[in-house]
Design brief:
The protein is α+β, with helices and mostly antiparallel strands. It has a single domain, classed as Pnp Oxidase, Chain A (Roll). The chain is 27% helix and 34% strand. Strands 1, 2, 3, 4, 5, 6, 7, 8 and 9 form a nine-stranded antiparallel β-sheet that branches. Helix 5 crosses helix 6. The two termini are 30 Å apart.
Length: 217
């Protein structure tokens, strides 16, 4: 027996800010994403680079979490994490992933399906070096996704690392931490419209060429 909370069921938002037509989008979906992303930044969307990363994990169950986009490249989207984390292990086992951006202030979302691969070590070194020192030490201290006894475990490791690198301006990137590039094979741009008749424009990669389709809402 399910219980439906009436207040939740009654929540509705009618979307009417923008529209999306196939004739108006870029021929390349990454260029179209760059356009929308720039608009989200100008519109002061809260954390416009926040994205839901979904992987295929143990037992073939999907697993999702929010991570931060760090770069838009000509061939994909990059983020950084601990390679030994749950998502890192999942990607090592199955490189098929999805990304989801939701910008409610603009009534937009972007869905991306693709394959993830590790970035070159020099790219990971460059980004790690640009992080605040506290974040660098946190990456070294945390055995991400592992079971730990309590928060004191982390604090003890951080304190030890702070002492170790107190006189060092540079903290070396650990081998278990670095970046991934998600190369898309399918991207969908969703624009909220009135009466739930939303605009959905899909790009599908066919042998290196992008086909553009309108999808029914």
């Amino acid at each position: 027996m399910s219980i439906i909370h009436k207040d939740i069921a009654a929540i509705r938002e009618d979307y009417s800010k923008f529209h999306l037509e196939e004739k108006d989008v870029a021929a390349n979906p990454i260029e179209q994403f760059q356009c929308w992303f720039d608009q989200s930044v100008r519109s002061q969307v809260m954390e416009p680079n926040a994205m839901v990363l979904s992987t295929i994990g143990e037992g073939h169950f999907p697993s999702s979490r929010v991570v931060l986009l760090k770069d838009i490249k000509s061939n994909g989207f990059s983020f950084f994490t601990n390679y030994d984390s749950r998502k890192g292990r999942a990607i090592a086992n199955c490189d098929r992933v999805s990304l989801l951006f939701f910008w409610p202030e603009l009534q937009r979302q972007v869905r991306i399906e693709g394959r993830a691969e590790k970035l070159p070590a020099e790219d990971s070194d460059e980004y790690f070096a640009s992080r605040p020192k506290a974040s660098q030490l946190g990456a070294l201290a945390s055995p991400q996704s592992s079971i730990i006894d309590d928060r004191n475990f982390l604090q003890t490791r951080v304190d030890s690392l702070e002492n170790k690198y107190a006189l060092n301006d540079e903290v070396p990137r650990p081998a278990y931490w670095g970046g991934y590039l998600v190369k898309p094979v399918r991207m969908e741009f969703w624009q909220g419209r009135s009466s739930r008749l939303h605009d959905r424009v899909e790009y599908v990669n066919r042998g290196g060429d992008w086909e553009i389709h309108r999808l029914a809402p």
